[in-house]
Amino acid sequence: MNAVTTARLTEPGPLDLLVLQPTPFCNINCSYCYLPDRRSRKQISSEVLDRVFDQVFTSGLVRQPFTVVWHAGEPLVLPPRFYEKAFALLAALNVNKVSVAHSFQTNATLIDDDWCQFIRAHDLRIGVSVDGPAFLHDRFRKTYSGQGTFARVLEGMQRLREYKIPFHVISVLTRASLDYPDELFDFYVGLGSDRVGFNVEEIEGPNTTSSLNAVDARPMLTRFLSRFYDLAERANPPIHVREFDSARAALLAPPGVSPPPDQQNTPMAIVSVDCDGNFSTFSPELLGLPSTHYDGFALGNILTDSLADAVKSPRLMAIERDIRAGVERCKATCSYFNYCGGGAPVNKYFENGSFDSSETMFCRMSRQAVVDVVLHKLERSPVGVQ
Amino acid sequence: MALEKDALTMAKLRGGIRIVEGERFAWPRALSERLSLNSGVCFEGENVYPRTDWRTPGSDELALLTGGNADACDQLVLIRLSERLVERWWELAASHPESSVLAAGAFDVYAGEVMEFLSFKQVEFPSVCRFEARITAPGLPSIHQTVGGLTALQPAGRLVGGINLSDEESALVILNLTETQLSDLVPTLPASASLSEKARVFLTHCSDYPQTRISLAPGEGFWLPSTSVIVDGDNRGREQIDVQLVIRAA
Lengths: 386, 250
Hints:
The structure holds 2 protein chains of 2 kinds. By secondary structure, chain A is α/β, with parallel strands linked by helices. Chain A has one domain (about 10-385): Aldolase class I (TIM Barrel, Alpha-Beta Barrel), CATH 3.20.20.70. Helix content of chain A is about 40%, strand content about 10%. Chain A has helices at about 5, 45-60, 80-95, 115-120, 135-140, 150-160, 180-190, 215-235, 240-250, 305-310, 315-335, 345-350, 360-380; strands at about 15-20, 65-70, 100-105, 125-130, 165-175, 195-200, 240, 270-275, 280, 300. In chain B, the strands form 3 sheets. Chain B has a 6-stranded mixed beta sheet. A 4-stranded antiparallel beta sheet of chain B has the order 2-9-8-11. Chain B has a two-stranded antiparallel ribbon with strand order 3-4. In chain B, strand 3 (about 40-45) and strand 4 form a beta hairpin. Classes of the chains: A alpha/beta, B alpha+beta.
């Protein structure tokens, strides 16, 4: 092994997100989904869970509170009793009593009274994936038979509200959404959810195209974001948009302060484990996706390999080296670097063909357009700066 | 007075003003479900009212009303306010229960919000415009019933658009012929004749020419073509007062 591959370019961790795939199965079939095996009904075994938690707590990566995100499939297709056992397993191995939050990103179609009681009992963080009112949501978020899922999602969210369970909403923005900021805003207000995140439709894995990959998409998105910013700012109570909050924090950081390292560019800040025990780091989406260049993105299997060894593995070193080079390239060439920190590896790889690259459609849409809008608003309304 | 063609042939709908749904609005029902035609107009003294025998248009008629690539200046575009803006109207109205009109400041703020919303939807406003809240009684065949009904002379400010702010469906009735078409059909009138005069002469001779009725749910409205058009409200069938936000070129 040569000097380049053994030199630690970035300190691994600390672990911030542990993304666990309880099952790849999803009960709905969104047309822009990047998960290749979402029809598979496999589920993570207690043996895999035991090994994951044991290794996480003994790896030296846990140096602060972290969050377990149950995702990459619809987590609620497994019953509450599955999670009851998983949480107990984690607690038993958490000898230092590190604060661990559990977060579920769900399509909400399966939320019932049992789930609500379980969510409240364990103080779970809930994010609901819903793309807005029915005419937007049902275009892409369909059942396997092609029916819209909006009505079921709404029922699930209604149940959460009945139980006074707070939840945030994540909406995928497609080209179709961009004419409807007011309609989306009205929808969120009606839900009573004051925290919203916008994910742009990305190019990654099986989703090889995006409706936003067009010349006129950025001005359209900018208009959308600008309008939504105004509506959210005037709302009473206000609606917090994840992207606006991040951009505002970056723009208002004192001069000379470097952007915080992006979790997705820091080895082992995010650890993703699939239901078979394969694990990876950097962007969570990478784990299930193919790569001839690196012979896959999995760094090992938790049943046979250790996280501690993976940190030193040639594959991780090679991926990390290329990601680092890509971040340096961003730093050298992108005027938005100080507000971003170097982009998302998964988008660089699947849009540009290499981690060692810079700007992507994702950057333009998810980062640059947002920074442009927030900067413009802050410049126009400096009294609004807190 | 001679007309271009025999009046009998004029009982058949012609293509003229096209009715289209605004592109950047969400539409809960099909355009065809909100359109109806009748058998023409009736006269009560000087007033011209649409007959009440409304029917569903046939497919050929629907194509004439909605199809094709009409010049944008001949399009009547349907628009739709966001739910928030409709609710906001009623909040404003409720906050001024003592007055039949909203305090000017509150109304201006509301009009500004509507304009912001419609501007985002790329609805084109005249360089200067005026917003009015127009309230009319239920059951009337026209909102111009004391001044001519369907062929009433329009006020000086050109009507640009209107939005149904009531909580009941309202209806817009149009004569779907452009001013150019009416001029061709009534060649004996001088070119300087008003659109109302041309329409009155035309409808006097062709009273069986079908009128077009457009149903507008609460929050829905219309944006008129840049060319003049014969248009009226029809409050028959309503149980409550009709409240419209009217936008005129100033």
